[in-house]
Structures are given as structure tokens and as C-alpha cells.
Amino acid sequence: MTKSKPYTQDLRDRAVRLVLETEEQYPSRDAAIKSIAAKLGIGTAQSLRNWVRQAEVDAGARPGVSTDEAARIKALERENAELRRANEILKAAASFFAAELDRPHRRS
Predict the structure, then answer these.
(1) pLDDT at 108
(2) How many degrees, rounded to 5, is the angle at CA 3 between CA 2 and CA 9?
(3) pLDDT tens-digit series, residues 43-65
(4) Residue 6 and residue 48: Cα distance in Å, rounded?
(5) I need a labelling partner for 59 at 20 to 30 A (CA). Which of 20, 28, 96, 99 fits?
(6) Residue 26 phi/psi, 5° resolution?
(7) pLDDT band at residue 2 using 50, 70 and 90 as cut-offs
């Protein structure tokens, strides 16, 4: 089950861009974030704060896992889980067929 995102990517990008472009007009970045979040109707300033941090990570201005890297890791973890399940199925099948070969068979 996936979480639906209440805000479009366009709104997120616009909000982040506004914060980064106008933060010098406010006493602090936090003040800029609170003001812009209120003006754009973003539920909590924390959401916008997270978007700004992630944008900085994606741009290489802050350490962390970029959005692309996170998506790649998630896809690899999903593939790894699928391969583990397939491997377990193959092991079970091999055990079943090995047991069949060990059983004595009657000739008719």
C-alpha cells in the first residue's frame, strides 16, 4: 500500500524555490519556511522544512541520501526480497524431488 501525497510535485518545487530565493528577506530560514508554508496552504511548516532539506541533499549542498539514491536502494531491496523468495521456492522444490529419488519404487 502506498501513501498518497497530498501536495503535487509542482507545489513542492515552488515552495522550496520560494524558501531558497527569499530566505534572506526574513530574519531566519525558519521564519521564511513558516511564512511561505502559511501562504501556500501547506499544512505544517515541518513538511516544507523536510522538502527544503531534501532539495539541498539532492543538490549536493547537504550530506545525505538523495531522492534518486533512495529510490534505487528501495528497488534493489525489493528485487533482493523477490530473489530470496524465489530461492526458497527452488530449495523446497529441490528437496522434494531429491526425496522422490530416494524412495524405493516398485516395478510393475
Answers:
(1) 60
(2) 110
(3) 899 999 999 999 999 999 999 99
(4) 13
(5) 28
(6) -115, 160
(7) low
